Amino acid sequence: MPKRTDLKKILIIGSGPIIIGQACEFDYSGAQACKALREEGYEIVLVNSNPATIMTDPEMADRTYIEPLVPEVLEKIIERERPQALLPTLGGQTGLNLAVDLANMGALDKYHVELIGAKLGAIKKAEDRSLFKAAMARIGLELPQSYYCYSVDEAMAGIGQIGFPAVIRPSFTLGGTGGSVAYNFEEFERMVKWGLDASPVSEVLVEESVIGWKEYELEVMRDGDDNVVIICSIENFDPMGIHTGDSITVAPAQTLSDKEYQIMRDASIAVIREIGVDTGGSNIQFAVDPTNGRMVIIEMNPRVSRSSALASKATGFPIAKIAAKLAVGYTLDEIPNDITKQTPASFEPTIDYCVVKIPRWAFEKFPGSDPRLTVQMKSVGETMSIGRTFKEALQKGLRSLEIGRYGLGCDGKQMRFRADGADADTIAQIREKLRTPTPERIFYLREAILAGFGVDEMYALTRIDPWFVNNMKDIVEMEGRLRKANGHVRRIMRGEIEPSDDKEVKAFLKEAKQFGFSDRQLAHVWDSDEIVIRNVRKRLGVEATFKLVDTCAAEFEAYTPYYYSTYSDEDEVRPSQKKKIMILGGGPNRIGQGIEFDYCCVHAAFALKEEGCETIMVNSNPETVSTDYDTSDKLYFEPLTLEDVLNIVDKEQPDGVIVQFGGQTPLNLAVPLQKAGVPIIGTKPESIDIAEDRKLFRQILDRLGLKQAPSDTVFSTEEALEVARKVGYPVLVRPSYVLGGRAMIIAYDDEHLKSYMALAREASPDHPILVDKFLEDATEVDVDAVCDGVDVVVAGIMEHIELAGVHSGDSACVLPPHTLAEHVVESLKQQTKALALALNVIGLINIQFAIKGDDIYVLEVNPRASRTVPFVSKATGIPWAKVAAKLMIGKTLKGLGIHGDHKLDHFAVKEAVLPFIKFAGVDTILGPEMKSTGEVMGIDRSFGLAFAKSQLAVNSYLPLKGKVLISVNDNDKARIVPIARKFAALGFTLMATKGTGAVLSSNGLEVEVAYKVNENRPNIVDHVKNKGIALIINTPLGKASAYDELAIRRAAVDYRIPYITTIAGAQATVSALDALISGGLSVKCLQEYHPNAP
Amino acid sequence: MKAILALEDGRYFEGASFGARGERSGEVVFNTSMTGYQEILTDPSYKGQIVTMTYPHIGNYGVNEEDFESLKPHVEGFVVRECCRYPSNWRARKPLAEFLAEHDIVGIEGVDTRALTKHLRDAGAMKAVLSTEDLDVKSLVRKAKESPGLIGRDLVKEVTCPEEYRVPARGEARFRVVAFDFGIKRNILNNLSKRGCEVLVVPAQTTAAEVLAHQPDGIFLSNGPGDPEGVPNVVQTVRELIEKKPTFGICLGHQMLGLAFGAKVCKLKFGHHGGNQPIKNLASGRVEIAAENHGFAVVRDTLPSDVDVTHMNLNDKTVEGMSHRKLPVFSVQYHPEASPGPHDASYLFDRFIEEMEHNRR
């Protein structure tokens, strides 16, 4: 069927901010869809609240709305744009839920918008568990036994038939939020309550446990002619009971025979037909009883998912792009396979390698959180690795994680257990570690193997299929052989004797490499050095070979250069003679290093392509746009370690390597790469070092006459205490060379500082610790700028809404600054220029300042792309990362026509999105350590409206009436009065704790006084839980009431009540509400904000 | 223990032996199925061929008691990247290497199978020798050159049943089918049997008169190894039968039918061997994903005007199915019985039943 011509304009909804369970994979899918549909001549209207996405680049769509993803706003956009169709299946669960909301509120009918891809009925059938269950029964598929309940009583009444363990799944949530496993009545009751609350419809499914069963996923596509193909099968390494997003997963399925696989395939096809997804991709999950093969279906996502992104990267088949084309009427056989060009997309990819995905968690960011892995997803990122065998891929994946491991152990970072002489105590500990799934379990499996555990026992404890355990055993046994290598081998590997044509040593080394051992591991086992091993290896001719990901296992010629490394006979890379620039990506997402950096890498690729360079991308994150084979000229899906990057450099001999866009990951490689002779372009690694080296940096500041808070660099606890006493408490303490404020705190006394120092040494053992005087009550400002070595242009100045002390990644900020005086802004620009030139920056620089009165202090300088680059680009309409990339290859700001005099007649507010809802019980207070996973942007003509939009985008709603609970510390009591008055004037009622209440009523405000938690009942937490509160303002009161605050903060998160911790935030919120109540929201697209954008 | 696979053009691959030891020659082909090695090994169509699997982990789920397509493996040799020693599946009965050793099949692992596959793709399927005995490459290449190959060779006689046998219908026997065994796969018989066919499986050289004496409702022409032109007298038999009875052919049976229609058959460069081939049903416009295993194909332009091409391979546009306009005779090049592979085309067996039903009336 040809494409539909009755459609002209199509609305695509993005997935909003990055949160746990919904990350940049939806930027990848949405961006692909935009490209695919514009290629076909459709006009695209895109909505997303997340500015750090490629899809919200103004050139990706015809009309780009960075607006809150709430139904009311979507309706306004529909009213304004009048699209004929809405494609709801590419924006994750958020996109799907919004489509349902819009349909339910009648907006789609009213404006005659057709849902394409999946109709409302299909979405409901897949999402509503009882409809789904009935549908599966019609096609003869089994589900685990289950029942629905809407109250704790109903839950308790039904549990008898199911028994324990039982799984509790709240309906209509994403990432399995609120899902959990109960082993007894007490747990069950607690978890049902939580689940009812997490479900937007207060519905919970209680389900027979299939914990320990094998888990599989199939990625399915269907076209309008009812052709169905399977793109990829995925087998979970971790068994049922661990959310697939938290499981190590492997593609293709490993332990299913063809008979069993075909049964699953038939079932998947039956499911997509029965659910009625018209066109596009779906993800279907199955559990299989390992003892008898009984197969049950777990769930179906009638949309592109996280697993689809993984499947696309794992096979080379672009699911989202094809899904978009199918949605407008094409059939699979009408669409060519991009990779082979000669064959159509109506086939099933076959792969000739093994793919391993490993999640990355951030439990260390949330002290007190439970690191056990359950049916609720908790990981913040993932890495994918490709090898010819599972063993190779697993070890590559583990070193891609960037958690200081270089493979499956054997890297000098053993766990607590020794290989030999494991005593009974040790054995018992290992058993416990295997029984409890945590991020470390995979490493404990190695310990268990070393301690002599049998495969059966390890299987019984972990329920990880013996096939995987046996493969790991092969790796550990190989390690044993390496350890036993004779003196001759060791001497060669230490570079003590020249390897002559030594066939046996060569074969041994090649075998180790085929098992995925990194040079770091080999250096560890042979007491050598990574670079020495590398040189010996190359002299012996044991070099990485690169193979293609081609969808067809080499049956047809591939035209898309998408590579992975392995150790084999034949290499398929054909280096070109063009000017080549290599861009190092950011690796797995983590808190502090996420989509913003991928955005910069993608822009670098686009910019350099425009300049005629061949671009080579290296990254290991399957969720990203950077690892789309369309983004750069060549893609290497590889770990970002020195060894792996050097292997690619050897092969490609690039003219330049860019390290400043991918965050800390490539930056950490800058110096070793330079030492190895790799041409780093842009700001020199030496300058990056200066910015990190406090002493050198201070010299520069002194020379330039700039101020810095008193500070020093220390190596020991004693030194730290000395510095703290000298500059006076509070002090800000952090290790150098970390991103996202890892292990950064504000210490108020000696005791606090001492306990911190112990931890900090662990987070960054090789680097010094920085101690700064903390500037209380200062306003923090972020400045992004670009420099070509001669000229400097300030890209954006962002004023933080929270006061200094909250990590810049976690604080809301506004561009342009809304309270700073003209002369302060001018001075900030001058200081920025001076610093950029002094550091010889070529490309981007980010500077954080603190402003106290008229004094400007330099807090931090990062001569690299910062997290705020995409936000600034969207706010100003200039693609700064592209500009920076062009400067790095020698273009000038003058030449590019970039000057600093852009005046904005709008405000843009960036707000952070925090993951506390996923971590039961942890404290939600913000501090100098970054905890947010993503961001949103609000943009409008006034600060109030822009801020209101940002809050709406984060919270999904802002209360326009109701009760405001106020509890502030003594410093803030005077300042809260005018704010409270404004709330009252807007029609809100006020509630306050005793002290605050007294101040408010003495100022003539009517206020209800509530008890603190330790005073009496009902206390403020009771009020929150009874949903009698619309909004909370609570500034920290110091140590005395810490418990109280923790309880309120936690309750606010759990009950999803907007919670404000600063006076500045309260001020911004009240002006936002004022703007909202008086005028309501209007929408405007980026193309209107920036009509003259390049 | 070392093993070498040497190709007739001089390229060779070193690896480690698994399964039986010895020396075998055959045409080396690659198969892109990620699962189904047990069915592939035991498919008689692979007689005369050394099969390399493109998926690197082979043997993961062992060998079980059910997934046999014939009584024993027929491949001449088996080439993999890594053979799994520790199968994991509830149906697994023994490891793959043990099974191959028992049946005297020579295997080699540790080979860069992707390099081999690319070579075959570019240079075409070719003759090869796999040996654990002679490790002299020059000698192996010479042996490969001298080996018989597939063209014009009658391999059917090596895999056809020595005498006829009966497969009862599951449930009530509604039809009687005579199936020519050119190397028939068990799942074809299952598909017929479960649709109420009592199947009389007959040796390839059975004459038309002998077949008709059984008074069948329909004739089935099975899959099988090698070149259809290697068995010319069977083609003559087929020519006689199609005038009289509804006939359904699969794979080699399809090619025999093509020859019987007077069409020509050509050798494909490296054939179709895998479970992901896109086959377009030209009548419905639908795409079926199918398993395939063939090195020869019916040449479209040589088909007579009363034969329609019904199915086409979307990758290379070759003929995948045909149907006679007047006679109830049709065939497909691919494998609707799957095993291994997708079940998308099982409707073809239903069509055969309908043809027989219709013809009876």
If you had to describe this structure to a student in words, what would you say it looks like?
The complex is a heterodimer of chains A (1094) and B (361). By secondary structure, chain A is an alpha/beta fold. Chain A has six domains: 145-208, ATP-grasp fold, A domain (Dna Ligase, domain 1, 2-Layer Sandwich), CATH 3.30.1490.20; 214-384, D-amino Acid Aminotransferase, Chain A, domain 1 (2-Layer Sandwich), CATH 3.30.470.20; 419-444 and 453-678, Rossmann fold (3-Layer(aba) Sandwich), CATH 3.40.50.20; 710-773, Dna Ligase, domain 1 (2-Layer Sandwich); 779-904, 2-Layer Sandwich (D-amino Acid Aminotransferase, Chain A, domain 1); 959-1057, Rossmann fold (3-Layer(aba) Sandwich), CATH 3.40.50.1380. Chain A has 38 helices and 39 strands. In chain A, the strands form seven sheets. Chain A has a seven-stranded antiparallel sheet with strand order 14-13-10-11-12-15-16, with helices on both faces. A seven-stranded mixed sheet of chain A has the order 17-18-21-20-19-22-23, with helices on both faces. In chain A, strands 32-31-28-29-30-33-34 form a seven-stranded antiparallel sheet. In chain A, helix 2 (71-81) packs across helix 3 (92-104), helix 32 crosses helix 37 (1063-1079) and helix 33 (970-985) packs across helix 34. The model of chain A has no long low-confidence stretch (mean pLDDT 91). Chain B is an alpha/beta fold. Chain B has ten helices and 19 strands. In chain B, helix 8 crosses helix 9. Chain B starts with a strand and ends with a helix. In chain B, the strands form three sheets. Chain B has a ten-stranded mixed sheet with strand order 10-12-11-13-14-19-18-17-15-16, with helices on both faces. Chain B has a seven-stranded mixed β-barrel with strand order 1-2-8-6-4-3-9. Chain B has two domains: 2-146, Glucose Oxidase, domain 1; 156-360, Rossmann fold. The mean pLDDT of chain B is 96. In chain B, strand 15 (265-281) and strand 16 (287-298) form a beta hairpin. Chains A and B meet through helix 9 and helix 16 of A and helix 3 and strand 15 of B.
